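A further point concerns the way the authors explain their paired sequence and structure data. Nothing conveys this as quickly as seeing an actual entry. An entry of this sort, consisting of the sequence and the corresponding backbone structure tokens, reads as follows:
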Amino acid sequence: MDRPNANFVYAHRQKVPFVHTHSDFAHFGGGISGMGNLTKTGRDQTVVSAGQLLVDGVLTTNPASLTSVAANAILGGNGLVCGPTTVQNGGALAPGANGIGQLTVSNHVTFTGGSCAMMEITKNGGVSVNDLLFVSGTLTQAGSLVVTNLGTEVLAAGDRCKLFNALKFAGAFTNFSLPPLAANLIRTWVNIRDP
């Protein structure tokens, strides 16, 4: 099924499920929005091939279902992804949905070279909050880490933010774009890898 310009909008007060149960390929180039459920069954793979997929709920309940984020695509939201997740070269993972949030992957997450972890923090009134990627398996870091401060205050000495929580860590990010610091401070970001 190929619907390159299809848009599905739920206009009902009750949750109305949209269910795709075919084992063949389904492509929706428009948007799927509104209240309700989107259930994908069939092949055990979700590929975010372009645009942004925000998970608000559970993406899949199958822990063997693969999730892949391709170039020019973003996986984000405040929900749960159950299967192993790979962010490919040119793809990005960004917890939250247009603001601070937590994305949970109850499996492994792998950032490949050229991929990007896009994290947000905010500091207002001396209080800092930040995005969190919670991984119950191994988090393999590579590519870029981009941290954006959405708040009104710059970071100061002693400010802390935990962006990743994982059972195990592997690899390292190789490129960094970090928010500015208060005047006369030297940028020191410490990668503490405690679960």
